[in-house]
Amino acid sequence: MSTTSGMSIERHPDIAALRDRYDRVAERPVTQMAEGLMLIAALYVAASPWIVGFGDQMGLAMCNLIAGIAVALLAVGFTSAYGRTHGMTFVAPLLGLWMIVSPWLVADVSTTTGMIWSNVLGGAIVCLLGLGVTAMGMREDRGDRMK
């Protein structure tokens, strides 16, 4: 068994090429638009208890705040370092699904129509944008296929 001394896995040519590919994906305007919209949707979800008026429903308010901040941080990570964070893109759609169902699953919540619409629409937008960002990272570049 032979090993190359002094060569870090971080400098391996395949990993560098893969990161370059993901960085090219992140530079596409459609990817930047999706990540930016995901950030805006996440910030809305985080603030929605106080925008829509269910801030007194502490369980759901904290759930929305935490999930919204988590998705916002993911969106910022995707925007700034997609080559290193692409492996976590699956988390955003899952959090979007959680936002959709949370009004019925969080304990001690008296749901209102506004609360449900806010969570369902916010969660659906986050889920769809998260799936889009995930798909963009998985899509093979035409230039990569020609090599």
Detailed description of the structure:
This protein is mostly helical. It contains 6 helices and no strands. The C terminus is likely disordered.
Radius of gyration: 19 Å
Structural class by SSE content: mainly alpha
Distance between the termini: 31 Å
The SSE order reads HHHHHH
Helix content: over 70%
Strand content: under 5%
Identify the overall geometry.
elongated
Number of strands: 0
Whole-number average pLDDT?
85
Main sheet: strands, sense, barrel? none
Low-confidence stretches: 142-147
Number of helices, where a helix is a run of at least 4 consecutive DSSP H or I residues: 6
Please give a quick description of this structure.
With 147 residues, the protein is mainly α. Helices cover 77% and strands 0% of the residues.
Summary tags:
147 residues, mainly alpha, 0% strand, disordered C terminus
Secondary structure elements and pairings:
Layout: H1 13-26, H2 29-53, H3 58-85, H4 91-105, H5 113-138, H6 142-146
